[in-house]
Amino acid sequence: MSQKLFTGTGCLTKLMIRQNRFRLLLWLVGLIAVTLATAVAYPDIYPDEQSRAAFVLTMENPAMIAMLGVGYEDYATIGSLFAHEMLLFTAVAVAIMNILLVGRSTRADEEDGRVELIRSLPVGRLAYLNGAAIVAIITNVFVAVLIGTGIFLLNIDGMSAQGAYLYGAILGATGLVFAGFTALFAQLAETSRGSAMLSFGALIAAYLVRASGDISSEALSLVSPLGWTVRTEVFVENHWWPVYVMLTVAVVLLLVAFYLNAIRDLESGFIPEQAGKRNASVFLQTTLGLAFRLQRTNLIAWAIGIFLLSASFGAILGDLEVYFTDNEFVKAFLAESGDNSMMEQFIVMLMGIMALISTVPAMMTVMKLKSEENKYLTENYYSRAVSRSRLLGSYLCLSMIASFVMQALVATGLWSVGVMVVDDALAFDTMFASALVYLPAMWIFIGLAVFFIGIAPKAAGSTWLYVVFGFVVIYLGDMLEFPEWINNLSAFHHIPQIPIEDMDIMQVSILVVIAIALTGIGFVGYNRRDIQG
What we know:
75% of the residues lie in helices and 0% in strands. It is mostly helical. Helix 5 runs parallel beside helix 8. The protein starts with 8 loop residues before the first helix and ends in a 5-residue tail after the last helix.
């Protein structure tokens, strides 16, 4: 490739860093703070041999292997416990950061016309993509170095310098792989929505393949980049080969992306969008129908992914039962825990995490209205006899339907597969209730998005920080022993844990009232404020 193709890369890289500086700062601070805070807490969480033995038994059951990856042979140090429990989920968070960063700096900017504007200047054809790649590389190097150095400086038992920097390096390498996937998909898809769908689909597929492979076949697990991540055995064997493999794959993906970018026309993709029908249906001529049509592909992809993820957890319930039956320690624990089986407790924990995942497509649905406004596309609605309340109400209605459908798929996927492998599976209505009880909490997230869209549209993106906070409370709240007032800030913390707890009508009703209040204030603000464009 000629050097002229990359002319102007330096200026564009500075521009992208300036555009994304606040987002990158929030991501880096969040990742580093959560990682280091969790590492500091581990010596108090597992202070003696007994607590570590309980951890080892927990990590040997199939459900935990599917969630966190294959266990280590040696849990003699705090470092090995920390790496096994934290590495995979942190790697997924880094992958999401890279998908959003590269997607925004490539296909989204092209769709918004920024790339066309840039190319009218004396810059190379590949300069924009090259700038996005450099920003991704710089970001992941920061992740690797800062997390590695931070863990090393904590000087915790079993966290050696080599292990600390391997922990950071594998996170950065995982991020670069998914940055490469996103850059490639940005060339294949014609829209930013399609690019994001393919990128997140690749991440979900990587997680599912790894989970299935870790339980049944190591060869299958090695097909997934996340399978390589967990095989570093950080703080135990310290294998560096996954880092080298990932860096090689990332380079190959970026080179293919550069080649495809060089030979395709601007605003085109190698996977063309299907031509629509000549005449719109009656439903499509409504605001709700058009909102659904614009997000149909994205919602269907999320629905399939959530159903498959739930079904995969349902498939391991049988192994879970066998594990509990054969394990004397767990049987003794079950006897002490009263009437609640470990399977019920596992399902409760799983429902919380799945509800949080289901919140993402529901929030994306209502947040779509803000992105449409940013692109001046809401002018098309308001040039006709469409009220603001009707338009916002259509997106809100679609978002709430999405929340119900996603949770219904969680219950259906987990129950339909689980009932085939477990003799004494939970009844469908119990499983359905344990999933749908999270709807009021999900509606608070949706209401908060509507609140910001109406009152402070520029801050609407900060709603995602509340989603991240919800995940931290569910996953790390007990581990880090958060004060009760911090846990109370998460809407998910107030949901009754069916089936091990009874339904609390009053608590759920309060959440519904808060969601209605946030939504109502958002509607009032949206009707009063100026619309962009």
